[in-house]
Amino acid sequence: MISQWHLRAAFAQRLSDMYGREVPAYTTLVDVSREVNEDVLRARGADAERLGSIGRVTAERHGAIRVGTPEELRQVARVFGALGLRPVGFYDLREAAASAVPVVSTAFRPVDGEELARNPFRVFTSLLTPADPRFFDPDLRARLENFLDGRELFPPELLDLADRAEGAGELSEADAERFLHLAVRAFELSPEPVDQAWYRTLERVSAVAADIGGVRSTHINHLTPRVLDIDELYRRMTERGIEMIDTIQGPPRWKGPDVLLRQTSFRALAEPRALRTPDGSVISGALRVRFGEVEARGIALSRTGRARYDRLLARVDEAAAGLPRPDRDRLARDLWAQEIPDSEQGLAAQCLAHFTYHVAPDRPRDGSRPPAGLGDLLEQGWIRAEPLVYEDFLPRSAAGIFQSNLSEEGSRNNDRQGAAYDSAWLSGVLGRDVLDPFDLYEEQQNRSLAQVTRELGLDGTPV
């Protein structure tokens, strides 16, 4: 029998192989990421694996897909449920983007620490929002919803196998092979001709809307390797003649610990596609929808730490308005140095980031009582802190990647009231809870603190 995590690992590998065939520049991205990781490991030794073993980092991928209807999203949840992935986080890219990105999103990923260590494959999944009148007037909304209702993204056989895998936690070897074949095929780029006029109609609203609702299938939009030095990767990709977007999204590079997530990508490529013209003939054309993203993951910030991060971003935006990119980056580094502790211990002592805590083997043995406070326990060597990797996403960064790969900003009528979507709505659509990422980190941290409290005989959980 093939377990869910083996299914997950095999699916991620086959998806990567398929995407490499379809987008050769992705293979270059993977190769350069591997080279950078090997160089960082040689230079930094064990420190390079502080946020995950090199085996995990090398195998790690996050995919991105886009669907059009709540029913399609429910079906996606069934397919990914077979792989042990659960919906975590709600991301409203409509509000995070200055241009027209009419989607809300969640990420399907493992949630158990052991499962993440085995294979942390995750899929950022976006849902089109036809009900939002800022993007779609009543006539276009009706036409779009009618188009979407007439397509089938996932065959019934795939969904049946997915339900069996999720229910039993495994599949037989033959069923696993069939499931993997159908699942990978569902995300391949379809050779079916694209209705040129309909695609262009949606593209005037948003290139993202056209990519979702202008075709009769879905496809993997990007597949993202993880790298240990994203600035070095950016430099090496540029040297190889790959056109990168003009920035690295997320926190600045600075002397302190890596936190949250930094992302960049090569620009969307003009890929040959068959286009059906209004007179019914099929011509050769090209569409720019897929790109190669890469990410560097840092420590998961707490709610308090994330609030500080968001305030710093707002201050950078205000102070750096109109400044060239290098000046903006310098300003961000200066603010980070003023407001964010430059050590893991500092982050832990101020409860700005999430760690698991463990009693130190070489803790004091002189008969003294351990202190009650978390900062004192760390400083005096009673416990050690292991950082929790940030496993999730940043809506502003995701929107920034989307925007940087659009040739036009599309159209958005801000005089209209936007349609309301939130995590509770998404949970109802999926028929399964969309989990709060902060809760997941807090639960893992709190379990470790409870264990520390028992082992040291403390009167209460250290804070």
Textual characterization of the structure:
- There is one protein chain.
- With 463 residues, the chain is an alpha+beta fold.
- It has one domain (2-299, 391-432): 2,3-Dihydroxybiphenyl 1,2-Dioxygenase, domain 1, CATH 3.10.180.
- It is built from 19 helices and 14 strands.
- The protein has helices at residues 4-22, 24-44, 54-59, 70-81, 93-96, 113-118, 138-149, 156-168, 173-186, 196-205, 207-213, 230-239, 303-319, 325-339, 344-349, 374-379, 395-404, 423-430, 437-456; strands at 2-3, 61-67, 86-92, 103-109, 122-128, 170-171, 194-195, 222-225, 261-266, 270-276, 282-288, 292-297, 355-359, 383-387.
- A 5-stranded mixed sheet has the order 3-4-5-2-8.
- The longest helix has 21 residues, at 24-44.
- The chain is globular and about 90 Å long.
- Belongs to the 2-oxoadipate dioxygenase/decarboxylase family.
- One of its GO terms (molecular function) is dioxygenase activity.
- InterPro entries: HGLS, YdcJ_bac-like.
- It comes from Streptomyces angustmyceticus.
- Keywords: Dioxygenase, Iron, Oxidoreductase.
Whole-number mean pLDDT: 92
Strand content: 15-25%
Number of domains: 1
Large-scale geometry? globular
Structural class: alpha+beta
User: Would you identify the regions where 5 or more consecutive residues have pLDDT less than 50?
Assistant: none
Helix fraction, binned, reads 40-55%
Major β-sheet, in short? 5 strands, mixed
CATH architectural grouping: Roll
The number of E-state strands comes to 14
Distance between the ends: 45 Å
Q: Helical region count?
A: 19
EC number: 1.13.11.93
Protein name: 2-oxoadipate dioxygenase/decarboxylase
Cofactor: Fe(2+)
Keywords: Dioxygenase, Iron, Oxidoreductase
